[in-house]
């Protein structure tokens, strides 16, 4: 049996897609959550000084998207061919583009600059991305790619709490296809079991 240990802050954020994938695969894993005040002493022990880090039989790997892609290969959540895998990669990268744009607002330290960023984010940027993602799900039979569940769907739904936390509202409320996708992913028995038992956090 493979031994997994995920090291991350005590939040969902970038760790949650990995947790969703491990849960989907039925893997037992150590969910190592550390408080932020302990980060300075943990950081030097992490590859490239960043988290999340997944240890696989004692070998540490960083970069959350690379980890998710690896786990997707283990658990049958890739596309049926190279083209679908390209579509999945593009969807995941697009989701992270949206995350980065929301984070630019959320982590802005200057109050006036932060206030100035909010209206364009809410009225332009978020709708721009979500309208297109919603249409993509509609075209693909209720999923992001290929008419079936892939790791792109898990990444999107796993990140939603974090995106909503940063944006300060439910960003998919107006997008029926994305809401239905969220419901389908959260209804997967092993993912539902994880969500029911996971530690509570806003982000």
From TrEMBL:
One Gene Ontology term from the biological process aspect of the record? glutathione metabolic process
Which EC number(s) does UniProt give?
Answer: 2.5.1.18
Lyase listed as a keyword: no
The domain of life is: Eukaryota
Keywords assigned: Transferase
Q: What class of enzyme is it?
A: transferase
Which reactions is this enzyme annotated as catalysing?
RX + glutathione = an S-substituted glutathione + a halide anion + H(+)
In this protein, which residues make up the domain named GST N-terminal? 2-79
The GST C-terminal domain extends over 81-203
Task: Fetch the InterPro entries from UniProt.
Answer: Glutathione-S-Trfase_C-like, Glutathione-S-Trfase_C_sf, Glutathione_S-Trfase, Glutathione_S-Trfase_N, GST_C, GST_superfamily, Thioredoxin-like_sf
Q: Which GO terms describe its molecular function?
A: glutathione peroxidase activity; glutathione transferase activity
Pfam family of the protein (one): GST_N
Q: Which family does it belong to?
A: Belongs to the GST superfamily. Sigma family.
Q: How does it assemble?
A: Homodimer.
The protein, known as: glutathione transferase
